[in-house]
Amino acid sequence: MKTRHLTMAQALVGFLKNQHVERDGRENPFFAGVWGIFGHGIVAGLGQALQQNPDFRYYLCRNEQAGVHIATAYAKTRNRLSAFVCASSIGPGATNMITGAATATINRIPVLLLPGDIFARRNVAPVLQQLESEHSQDISVNDCFKPVSRYWDRINRADQLPSSLVETMRVLTSPAQTGAVTLALPQDVQAEVWDYPEEMFEKRVWRIPRQPADRAALARAIEWVRAARRPLIIAGGGVLYSEATEALARFAAATGIPVGETQAGKGSLAFDHPQNLGAIGVTGTPGANLAARDADLVIAVGTRLSDFTTASKTAFQNPQVRFININVAEFDAYKHAALPLTADARVTIEELEVALNGYSVDGEYARFIATWREWWESEVDRIHTLRHGPPISQGEVIGAVNCISRPEDAVVCAAGILPGDLHKLWRTRKPNGYHLEYGYSCMGYEIAGGLGVKMADPSRDVWVMVGDGSFLMLSSEIATSIQEGYKLNIVVLDNHGFSSIGGLSQSIGSKGFGTDYRLRGAESGQLDGAPVPVDFVALAAGLGARAVRATTREEVERALEDMRGHDRTSVVVIEVDKEMRVPGYESWWDVPISAVSEIESIRQARARYEEAVKKERRHEVAAGER
N- or C-end of the chain: fewer Cβ atoms within 10 A? Predict the structure, then answer.
């Protein structure tokens, strides 16, 4: 047997750069390179291996968490068919990646994490940045990755690497099991040598299957659809990952069944498709939420059915409602006691389209769909053109950015009040034109995520919409975008605090306590003084971006238009009126309120809460029993 005399780190890089994936006859390398920041726990091992393998590109980020966000956004935009590796030293470099790991795993996005680790041979312990334990020597901060990784291993011997890498690729390329994979790399083992088998470095193609549904379950699903009077499709991120958007558009048009989109699934249909009722759930439109309220059959495609999608299980009020869940993950397919079609979304939708030839919703339901679509388009136009202020409204800024962007462009956001408004108001025209991280709702994702989207598809203009809170948390990757030559258009909305949670605080009777960026009052001792002055234009310019401030609607439109003509990352800072909010429509979210309080407004909010929570579906009957 031929072998190669390599260090563990050299063998690792040699393996990774030869992994490919294939689906539908299209093949590509799986890994696009490595993001990281070298420290003493990785520079001499993995760092040296990367140095002598320049064809496996190394990218320097400014924050390890941001590096994972870049990787996550990249893989999501590539429909999970390509991914990045993220590397760090032991210690804070490693733990900085934990938030990114959780973000990737919760959103079911592949990313490979390679944190350096303490010495496997232990004789020099405790080493710099080592977490000591009185009950075990086999523990480090990297154990914190276990609950947020879909696969975790520590390579304590150089000869353990081959078997672990096979498991790593199995998970990363699995449509059902993918997420963050963590391989902890002890510092000494990275540099140890072993004779690795030659076949480990040969090209390997991992084929992504399109699993069909069980025949009996599919036949039952067809019967349920034909019997339904008010069916509704919920389109999740799985529609995009499966590249099932065209199939869904045909199926919805042929049957007349309306579609509500989740945050991850927005863009499954073009906004102007006749069956698209828009966003569904807590941040949904009235048409989609009213359709959900009365639906007797819900066809959930590629969605986790999170509480924002189901309005904390209050969305479905028809006592006879049944669920068909189409999902590659069995775990998700059985939610809500559904009839599970554990299968690929595109294959299953295409099979349903053929089997349901001639089926269509009745005229009354079709008129309901058309009426609410027309009303919603008028409402979006109204919000987009309010001409409020200054400060102008957030809805107007969204409208201005949406208007200036091209159909093939992408908007990127993650947390705060923006995701809810974008979910409702952004008119998505092409798949992957709407990129929201809302599984983990991770503040700080936006700019790093925007860079990942741009790297995944440089032909797109990327519009990053970010609140002042997220910008202050993690804006450092502006410098990285300039380093790598990827231009971002960044729109910073300054509302002087945490507007989303401030609005929630008001709704529960707490009057926005602790959510504004204000100086501490001399008399009250609370954060109720003047607004904290922050020069976001100077901050962005200091990181290398072209930055301007806009106040009026006209200034905003000019600034956005000017952005298109610049060749490097550009930022416009806009103060918005946080009290001019986009309303909620026919929905509710379960946020438990204090059962007792000395504050009257909280007692009133608790009374409203106790009534609303009664609508939650608590007892699900198994689908097979009805």
Answer: N
- Domains 3-207 and 385-496+532-575 fall in the same CATH topology: yes
Could you check whether the bond before residue 391 is cis, i.e. omega within 30 degrees of 0? Answer: yes
Cα pseudo-dihedral 549, 551, 556, 558, rounded to 10: -80
Number of C-beta neighbours around residue 595 at 10 A: 10
| 76 in Cβ contact with 52 (< 8 Å) | no
- pTM above the 0.85 mark? yes
Average pLDDT score over the chain: 94
Specify the DSSP class assigned to residue 576: B
Angle at CA of residue 182, ends 180 and 185, nearest 5°: 160
Q: Token pair for residue 383?
A: 């919000």
- Residues 434 and 412: their CA atoms lie apart, in Å, by 7
**For the domain 215-375, what is the CATH code?**
3.40.50.1220
Residue ranges of domains in the chain: 3-207, 215-375, 385-496+532-575
pLDDT greater than 80 at residue 430 = yes
Please give the CATH architecture assigned to the domain spanning 3-207.
Answer: 3-Layer(aba) Sandwich (3.40)
- Asked if residue 158 has pLDDT above 90, the reply is yes
The whole-angstrom separation of Cα 122 and Cα 114 is 20
H/E/C letters for each residue in 184-238? EEEHHHHCCEEEEEHHHHCCEEEECCCCCCCHHHHHHHHHHHHHCCCEEEEECHH
* Cα–Cα distance for residue pair 355/351, rounded to 1 Å: 6
Lowest-confidence segment of 234-243, 347-356, 613-622 by average pLDDT: 613-622
Per mean pLDDT, which range of 21-25, 308-312, 513-517 is the poorest? Answer: 513-517
Q: Which CATH architecture has domain 385-496+532-575?
A: 3-Layer(aba) Sandwich (3.40)
